[in-house]
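In keeping with the milestone schedule agreed at the kick-off meeting, the structural modelling team has produced records for the first pair of proteins. Each record is given below as a sequence line and a C-alpha cell line. The laboratory manager (R.T.) confirmed that both were archived under the project's standard naming scheme.
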Amino acid sequence: MMQSTEVLIIRHGQTDWNATKRLQGHSDTPLNEKGIGQALALADTLREEKLEAIFSSDLQRALRTAEEIAKWHNLPVTVDPAFRERSYGAFEGLSRDEIKTRYPESHAAWYAADPDHVFPPGERIAESIRAFHHRAIEAIQRIARPYASKKIVLIAHFGIIESAYRVAHDMPLEVRSRVPVLNTSINRFRVCENRIELIAWGDDGHLEPQQKPADYLKHF
C-alpha cells in the first residue's frame, strides 16, 4: 500500500487588493500590514509542526508568507511558479462590478462556471478554469511524491486551494465553488498519487476575530 503525504495548503496573507476585492491573478501585489501580521501569526502556530519541506508560489504575497514559516524550521523555501494563482488576463486589478460593466459576456461565462472560457487578454494571457485546474493538481501531486508519510507546507492562492478541494470532493469543473478561503487559514490534505483527500479545512484559530469580517466570506 502506497503511503500518502500530508500537504498543508495555505493561502497567503492579505494584500490591499484582497481588502478591496480586486482580482490579483499573476499580478505581484505585496502583503499589507494586516497580511504581514497574519503571516507572523501563522508561522507561530506552525512552529511546532514537524515539516519536511516548504513550497511557495513565486508571487511575493505567497513567498513572504512562506518565509515567515521557514524562519522557525531552518528550511529553505522552494519557489515554484506552477503554484501561481490563475491568470485572469484583463480582469486583473478589477472589482467584480468593474468586470461586469466592461466585460459582460466574459463575466456571465465566469459566473456560469464555463470551464473552457478564456477571459480577454490584459498584461498577461488568461487561463481557462480547466487549464488552471490541471496545472494546480499536477503541481500538488508532483511535490507530494518525494515526501511519502511526511508533512509539507505549500503557500499558494485561493485557486490552488479550491482546485485541491474540488478533487477531494469530486466536484466537477462546471460547478461553481462557493467555499471561502480566508487568508492564512490552514487546509490539510492527504495526497497519494492521483488521490487527494481532505483532512481538515479552514483552521483559522490564529486569526483574531476582527481579522475575519463577515463580508469577507462573500468571495468572488
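The second protein of the pair:
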Amino acid sequence: MRLENKVILITGSATGIGKAIAKRCVAEGARVVVHGLEVDLAAAVVAELGAANAVSHIEDLTSEGCPQRLVDLAIKTFGRLDAIVNNAAMVTQGNIHNTDAAYFMKMISVNTLAPFLLIQAALEELSKTRGSVLNIGSVNAWSGEPDLLPYSISKGALMTMTRNLGDTLMRENGVRVNQINPGWVLTENEARRKREHGLREDWYADLPKMYAPSGRILWPEEIAAAAVYWLADESGPVSGQVMDLEQHPFMGRNPPKDSSTIPSK
C-alpha cells in the first residue's frame, strides 16, 4: 500500500474532494484526521473509515488556535504526523462590483491564511517524518472568472505560497510542498450550487463539450487518486510544483461562437 503507516491530516474532509482523499488515503494504508464544520457528516466519515483509522475535529479553521489543535489531535491519537492536505475552502461568488473588504478578507482568511497557519503549526512534526504538504487549489488560480474574483485571487496566492514554501521547506526541513489545481468537479456542494442557480436536478448529465469535452466533469475520487502520488514516497524529492487537473487546456482556450453557457464552476 502506497501510504502504509502514514498519518495524514485533511481539512474539509467531511464532504467532497476532502472526503474522497480521506477514503483513498485509508485504502492506501494511512490513518487520517478528518476535519469539517458539520458534526454529523464528519462522524459518518469516521464511521465509514473505522475508529482505528480516523478521528475527527469540528472547528472553523480561522478560529484562533485551530491549526495547532488539529496537529495536537493527530499526535495524541496516532503518535505522528506525515502529511497535511489543505483542502478546506470557501467557494462563493463575488466580482469587482459587489465584493467589499470584509468579504474579501474572509475569503483570504479561509483559503490562504488558514493553510499557511496549518503548515506553520505542523512544521515541527512534519520535519521529524520528512513529511509533505499538499495544497488543493483551483484552475481559477490562473485568472478565474468574473464572478469568482476573490476566490480566484485567494487560490492564486495559495499557488504562490506553494512555490515559495516548496523550495524553502525542502531546503530547511526536508518537507515537500506541492499543489493540485482541480478543474470542474462534481462534489455535493457543486451539485447544490448549480441547483440553486436554477439548473435541473441532473444538470451534469448533458454538458456543452466546451466545458466537458469527455461528456462529463471530474469525480472527487479522480482528484483523490492524483493526491495519493504527492502524499506517497514515490514522488521522491519533488517539491514546489503545481499540477492542473482538468480535461482541457483552459488557459488561452477560445470557445466556439455557438457554444452554450452555464453558470460559473
